[in-house]
Design goal:
Elements: H1 12-19, E1 27-30, H2 33-41, E2 45-49, H3 56-62, E3 67-68, H4 71-76, H5 82-92, E4 98-100, E5 110-112
Parallel strand pairs: 1-2, 2-3
Antiparallel strand pairs: 4-5
Length: about 110
C-alpha cells in the first residue's frame, strides 16, 4: 500500500489471533527500526537482532528491549532472554520480569526483577 511503511502495526493482529495471545503477552523480534516502531505502535514489546543494516543505537532508541548480535545469540542464551522468561511467567502465572534496556550499545538486555 503506498505511503505505508512495513511492517505496519495492524499486521500483528492476525498473528496474535491465530496463536490466541494478548498484546501484553506477545514479544516481537525485528532487525529494523521500522519493526520495533510497528511493534510499539501495536502495543507489543520487541527485541532486536543486528543484521548489519541498522546501528544498534538506533534499534535501542526505537524502543527495543534488548539487541542481540545475531539470531544465534538468542538461541545460545535463550534461557535468559525475554522470550524464555515471558513464556515461563505465562506458564506459572507470575508477572514477567522487566528488561533493563539501559545497557551500553551492542550489549544484550539484562533481566531485572
Amino acid at each position: 500500500m503506498p505511503g505505508r511503511s512495513e511492517p505496519a502495526p495492524d499486521l500483528f493482529s492476525p498473528a496474535l489471533e491465530r496463536v490466541g495471545s494478548l498484546r501484553s503477552e506477545a514479544l516481537a523480534l525485528g532487525d529494523a527500526v521500522s519493526d520495533i516502531e510497528a511493534a510499539g505502535k501495536a502495543g507489543i514489546a520487541c527485541l532486536a537482532v543486528e543484521s548489519g543494516r541498522t546501528d544498534t543505537r538506533w534499534l535501542k532508541e526505537a524502543g527495543a528491549l534488548a539487541v542481540y548480535p545475531g539470531c544465534s545469540a538468542i538461541v545460545e542464551s535463550f534461557e535468559t532472554t525475554a522470550f524464555a522468561t515471558a513464556t515461563q511467567a505465562k506458564e506459572t502465572g507470575d508477572k514477567p520480569p522487566r528488561v533493563d534496556k539501559d545497557n551500553a550499545p551492542g550489549s544484550q538486555g539484562r533481566l531485572v526483577s
